Amino acid sequence: MAHTVSKLSLDFWDVHIKFTEEKTLSTEALLPKRDRDSSISFWSSFEDADDSSAEPELPEWLMEVPEDLDVCIAQRHFEEAYNLLERAREFLDKNTATDPVITDIRRKVETRAKALTEVLMKELEVSPDKSLQGGLRAARRAVRLLNQLGRSTQACDLFLKLCSCILKTQLKRVKREGATVLYVRQVGGIFFSNLTDMAREFLRAFPNSPSCASAFVVWAGSELNHLTSHLIKQVFMPQSSITMLAECVTCVRNQCDQLCELGVDLRYQLDGLLRTPLTRALRDSREKLVDAVKLRAAEDKWRPMNLQSKAGLTKFLQEMSDIGVASIHTYVTGDCWLGLTGNTVAFSKLYLTLLEDCLRLATPELLYTVDEVLGDVFQAQMLHVEASLSSDKYKTESKFIQKNAVFLLDTLLTLAEHCYEEKIGIPCNRLSKLRDEFSWLKKDGGTKQTNTHTTKPITKYSTTAYI
């Protein structure tokens, strides 16, 4: 009996479940289509909500960034590569997820950034088989992009190496032909004009960069050192005259000063590099000129100078006026005679030329040597006058000798002191001392002043109260 009831109960539930399912199906079938779609949409929204917890889908352009960067670099579209690289970096910086796909893309992007940097650095590298036809302008693109990539230091180093190669190539084209002064002018002109252009290009490529600016100054000083070493070997030779040296050095200094317009002053360094060879050259010139003065003195007969004709006199007066001795006409006697010896006139020309050359070469560091040269050469001539005036051989010509001494001290030495002070800004103590030392030559019956040191007498007490 119990078994029969249990069986009837199971049959009832089967019929009930089957009836419920059929009723549900029939009910849905009777619903309008719009209601059925709404029902589907309702359940779909729940499914989408479940999927939102997953990582968002990455844009297609980002997935293709590594390949696109490879293409841009290979085709040398460096600007496009940089823009795409920055766009990818900006997107990845905002997305801090640790998804393996994003991590892989980030790694690939940085690898391409390194590749782009290496390609740009090769653009600036100097090699024997690479043409320098484009010059520094061809390097602007690579330098700009390297700066944007944060590689300013490497770009600066490569840029300066490129500048060195261009300078070396330009200077090799100058051939050592003709006069030394012409050669120095050509070499200096090429060097400093190129250096000026490079300074302008450098300021354009690396604005507001103190570290790079310091590197440029150091580099420019190094290049100037190379140039000066070359010029010293070519110019400072034993047979070189002080006049030629003065012209060469003045030319190079003037060319160097054009860099000051850009804020690069290498003049002090240039003068420092030339100081030692110039000091040696000035002292060598002093020895040669002193020997020349002594040689002429041995041939001096203390006779008035004969200018042969009025035309010769006129020409002579013009020459002396051109070198600053306008008062020479006061020494003219007769039609074509001059109340000075040929030795005095020759020395005057020589000394004024030496004075001009020394003043062109003078710097604060060379001033002592310049004073030494000017003083020793003038002293050598005055010692000749002094010896002749004291000699019994020329007693009858003493008045004439004194007349030459007056010209040397009052005209020539005064002119030299004036030129010196006008150029240097201070008087020359050495020349002033020479004036005092030989001023006795101008006086009749004068005696030479001695340089013996006098000692002050010991004061005697007038009373023994203090003893």
From TrEMBL:
Q: Which InterPro entries match?
A: Cullin_repeat-like_dom_sf, Exo84, Exo84_C, Exo84_C_1, Exo84_C_2
Per UniProt, residues of the Exocyst component Exo84 C-terminal domain are 60-266
| Keyword Plastid appears in the UniProt entry | no
| Repeat among keywords | no
Supply the alphabetized keyword list.
Exocytosis, Protein transport, Transport
Pfam families this protein is in?
A: Exo84_C (PF16528)
Q: Which domain of life is it from?
A: Eukaryota
The family classification in the record reads: Belongs to the EXO84 family.
Q: What is this protein called?
A: Exocyst component Exo84 C-terminal domain-containing protein
Native organism: Periplaneta americana (American cockroach)
